[in-house]
Design brief:
Length: 396
Amino acid sequence: MLKWLKQSVGGGRSLKQAQTPLSDGPIDLTDAKTIASFKEISKVLRAQRPVCPVTSGGLLLTDSNDVKAAFSNKLLSNQPSRFSALAPKNREKYVAASVAANIPPFLDAPRHVEVRRWLSKCFFERFRAFEHQIEAIARKHIDSIAPALPHLLVEEIAHKFVVDVIGQFVGIDVAPDDMKQFTGALFRLFAPAADAETFEQTNVGLTNARHQLIAALHQRRIDQRDSLLNLLDRADLPDLGGTLKDTLIADNALLILADGVENVEAAIANVMMRLQNVGGDVCAEYVRETVFLDTPGQTIARIASQEMTIGGEKVSAGTPVFLSLASANDGAETEQDFSFGMGRHKCIGEQLAVAMITTFCRLIANQKPEIDTSNLHYAEMFGHKWPRGVVLTVYH
């Protein structure tokens, strides 16, 4: 089905048709034009330079076979290089390093397995109890949209919805602007630090997120409101790894918060744009197809633990290796869907994200929506494709 879908929209054509040459220099994954046209660029990269240097350092893998192999390659690590500001040795120096040392995307076995198992078990227990509540939350937000007036779909409408849902799911009341600061700071952990000022903003955002999540955890202990925070608190904890219990809970709750905000907003916009362009019935399969065709979360980072070879290219120890999920989806000759990662690197919040996107878009589709993409552009966020400027008008 996925292979047919790519071919039906032109994504499955032979790489030999990608004739436009690229410069021999590195690719800038924060450049707005590169982000907007990455699908076309990735076709050329797969044909000419499947292992491509990145301006901020590291290498980008675009070939689906290389990406698939990299997920299970034991020579590739999750733990930041000792030269990185996020290295475990810096956890007392930077909050960013401390957070990274507590969450699965930056951990290696055995602690990766222990923390991920604890988080996954609590997440799915909460999801089973919470899933039915999503529709009521979506209806509340959609009913509040003023009809016949233009609204920014991502920045206004979708953002308020996802903050409400993920806040109730985790068990924290957060203003939309605060949530944007928290989750934006977490996402910047997955990108090379642009400069000292940006890294400082990341540390401030993570510090504020920790404080609010720990405060929410203390409140949930008092009121015992159904929440992910309480489930994480009651479950058997993994090895604390030298951190405090409440800090470990807060950092992993932040990871789930981030799973439910930016990429979900982006996918909502992508679904609504596709719906206007080609039609269809909104369901979970339609949502997954849309995410597959235009993946909001475009890369996953790993670190070379020793000198190795990938795609015929030598990779030095400590080199960041970025797995292009979007390119792997577009270039795969199989039914493999890389959108949410693979195996131990698969997004824990996938089912919640799909449920949120499906429910919201299905209900919006009943409101006679009009989508204006004349000001469509993308946030300059490394490794992600987040649309901005999409305008929604509904006619209840």
